[in-house]
Specification:
The protein is an all-alpha fold and 191 residues long. It has one domain. It has helices at residues 19-52, 57-79, 86-113, 121-146, 162-184, 187-190. It starts with 18 loop residues before the first helix and ends with a helix. One of its GO terms (cellular component) is endomembrane system. This is DNA damage-regulated autophagy modulator protein 1. It comes from Nipponia nippon. Belongs to the DRAM/TMEM150 family.
């Protein structure tokens, strides 16, 4: 009963105790795992690049830095709860989602550049599709969230700003799952 049952924002699921502690802890663990995954991906690209020079090392480093910014944004989301410090929480979420979308797009481009020696075109197409869907969902997520005039957890249909909340929340979940599915495409590379 602490969050809207239909489509809450991700942060709505961890705003009130006791789930707030678990939410913050798991977001920080996820950010740490993201840092580790991105760093391993960075090292893998660097090693592959020594043999075939398919991308500039600075591009790979830039992608890593953008990804790390996203993980810092996740840490901000975990540290500053939605209802306690909404402006800082929202900035953290914007950094996390914005940097994440840029990171997966850059990684999709790097993947195409490494074809066919280090990646299959099938994997590249999957990564790019996930990136495009995430980019498309990111825009209405921000646009509709910015139209909401109040910060609250429990929404009912017909309420002022409910449609903005509903569309924005669906887009937020779409982008978040896009990140998860994108990272899953690294499994074969990491083997």
């Amino acid at each position: 009963g602490h969050a809207e049952p239909l489509v809450p924002y991700i942060s709505d699921t961890g705003t009130k105790p006791p789930e707030s502690g678990i939410f913050g802890f798991m977001i920080n663990i996820s950010a740490l795992l993201g840092v580790i995954t991105m760093y391993i991906r960075y090292l893998l690209i660097e090693k592959q690049n020594e043999a075939s020079h398919f991308v500039r090392s600075s591009c790979n480093m830039f992608s890593l830095c953008i990804g790390l910014m996203g993980c810092i944004g996740m840490g901000i989301v975990a540290a500053f709860q939605e209802l306690s410090v909404p402006s800082v929480h929202d900035i953290g979420a914007l950094v996390a989602f914005g940097s994440g979308v840029v990171y997966i797009t850059l990684q999709s481009i790097i993947s195409y550049k490494s074809c066919p020696q280090w990646n299959t075109y099938f994997v590249c197409h999957i990564r790019m599709a996930i990136s495009v869907i995430s980019c498309i969902a990111f825009i209405p997520m921000i646009v509709f969230a910015s139209q909401i005039s109040m910060t609250k957890i429990h929404w009912t249909s017909g309420e002022k700003d409910y449609t903005y909340h509903f569309v924005s929340a669906i887009c937020e979940w779409t982008v978040a799952f896009g990140f998860i599915f994108f990272f899953l495409t690294f499994i074969r590379d990491f083997q």
